[in-house]
Amino acid sequence: MKTARVIYEESGHKWIALVRDPNRPEYLIDTNEYMVIDGDDAILLDPGGNEIFPAVFSALSAEFDPRKINKLFASHQDPDVISSLSLWLEFNPQIKCHISWLWTSFVPHFGGNQDTFIPIPDGGADLMVGGQRLQTIPAHYLHSSGNFHVYDPKAKILFSGDVGAALLPPGDESLFVEDFDRHIRHAEGFHRRWMGSERAKRDWCNRVSQLDIQMMCPQHGSIYRGEQVRRFIDWFAQLEVGLVKG
Amino acid sequence: MAAVVTQDTGRELRRIVRINEEIKSVVATAFKINLMAMNAIFLAKRAGQTALGFGVLSNELRRFAMDLQKQMTALREMTYGSVATVTALVKQARLNRVLERARKESSGLGRSIIDEFMRSRHGQAYARHREQIAALNRRLSQMIADTAQLVELGSVLARSAKIEAAYGGPFSTSLMQVSSDFERTIGEIQRSLESLTKQQD
Fold first, then answer.
1. CA distances for B73 relative to A139, A170, A213, B28, B43, angstroms
2. What is the pLDDT of residue A16?
3. Is A53 on the interface with B (CB under 8 A)?
4. What is the structure's pLDDT at A246?
5. Residue A54, H or E segment
6. pLDDT 10s digits, B69-118
7. Which pLDDT score, from 0 to 100, does residue B2 have?
8. In this structure, is residue A225 part of a structural domain?
9. Of A103, B11, B118, B136, which is most buried with the most CB atoms under 10 A?
């Protein structure tokens, strides 16, 4: 079972990271899911794949009534991001999934219908959770051609999908990055191969540099905090991407 | 339970595939009969007065071939419907499996939500799909039986054509050859239908 870890909480506004499932089979990539709660409302960011639904559902239930989840956000179309959609729809057929307009006719292959998806235009859109406005930040071609991240101006947290992801060795369970230099070695090959566009990378670095970010939460690996966020952006800006061999 | 369901649905899908293959073979044979009947009509015309009866029967055989093709198209549509239902059942079985795991991993609120969910909507959906498959199978059996009757008529027509061929004068040998071909080809269809009936048992 995954663990639900509260990474931010202030006046009814909360971020929960659902992380590290010790029972996860090795052939499945490890993923982090995040839930943003504001009062009685919540959104699940990158709800994960079908196979890890039990672990996500059980960890999430410990913190929040899963029947109240009426919004999902999918950074892009990958199966480890959103293939559990049909299971969430079983519990709440009215659930809405916010995703790039590019994928609204592809992702229904995982579940849902014309009423399920709320397309996000290329320039991004706001997402309301309770009384809090979250911003979707364009991250196209990093790695998916229709890709968004989520920024929470109140918590100063950026959910960065595959950007910042690290494929940690077995046994490395740390929720937060402890040693940046050591950690980034596990991110390098991934970013060189999966991030396909230099231009998109530069655009993203410029865009997020203008945000006040205290925590950067990727879909795989550990969370960057404080100064590590700036270090990551600088590291990524100078990294040569779109290479078959890291 | 989920494993048993998956096994059942897997067997059901393989059965549908076998039925479809048999249908394809009957459709191809019906097309062959249609062409044979057209040739027989021309032959009867050339034979003239002596093959009038044979000509009538050839027309009837052609109509039979077209009816058979229509019947097989309906059968194929029905098996497509079965595929959709079995697929829904496979999906349901997969869902059951994941939910069962979620139930085991959860406690407190999560567990009670899943318990409640599985008791209500889930069990009903599974039972509904099983009933749909049973109903489709009953309709499929009925349609195969109807087709068998139609083919029996074709068989009678082929035998009558053989008798008529005997009165074909100088064309008798050619007409006999054509009517024997009809009889043999319709025999192939009868064997295919017997096989289809066995798939249903």
1. 50, 56, 63, 12, 30
2. 97
3. yes
4. 47
5. helix A53-61
6. 899 888 888 887 777 777 777 788 888 888 899 999 999 999 999 998 88
7. 52
8. yes
9. A103
Provide φ and ψ at A166, rounded to 5°.
Answer: -135, 140
Sheet with A148-152, side-by-side order of all strands: A126-129, A132-138, A148-152, A157-161, A215-218, A224-225
Q: Is A203 exposed, middle or buried (0-12, 13-18, 19+ CB in 10 A)?
A: middle
Give the model's pLDDT for residue B53. 92
- The domain spanning residue A182 has which CATH number? 3.60.15.10
Q: Which residue is it, tokens 């937060």?
A: A176
Quote the domain boundaries for residue A132. Answer: 3-113+123-238
Q: With H, G, I as helix, E, B as strand and everything else as coil, classify residue A113.
A: coil
Where b means 16+ CB within 10 Å and e means fewer, A93-123 reads: eebbbbbbebbbeebbebbbeeebbbebeee
In-domain check, residue A104 = yes
In a domain, A246, yes or no: no
ipTM: 0.75
Distance CA B34, CA B36 (A): 5
Provide the pLDDT for residue B4: 55
Q: Which of A238, A246, A234, A232 is nearest to A180 (CA)?
A: A232
Of all helices (H) and strands (E), which one includes residue A38? strand A33-38
- Does the beta carbon of A50 lie under 8 angstroms from any beta carbon of chain B? yes
Query: CA A221 to CA A229: how far, in whole Å?
Result: 14
pLDDT for position A243: 85
Q: Which amino acid is located at A49 in the chain?
A: G
Beta bridge partners of A64: none
Low-confidence ranges of chain B (pLDDT < 70): 1-9, 122-123, 201
Chain B residues close to A67, C-beta within 8 Å? 113
pLDDT in tens, A143-201: 999 999 999 999 999 999 999 999 998 888 899 999 999 999 999 999 999 999 999 99
Q: Which neighbouring-strand residues pair with A132?
A: A129
- Farthest CA pair distance, chain A: 47
Number of domains observed in the structure of chain A: 1
Residues in B closer than 8 angstroms to A87, CB to CB, are: 95, 98-99
Q: Is residue A49 part of a domain?
A: yes
Q: Which residues of A touch B115 (CB under 8 A)?
A: none
Low-confidence ranges of chain A (pLDDT < 50): 246
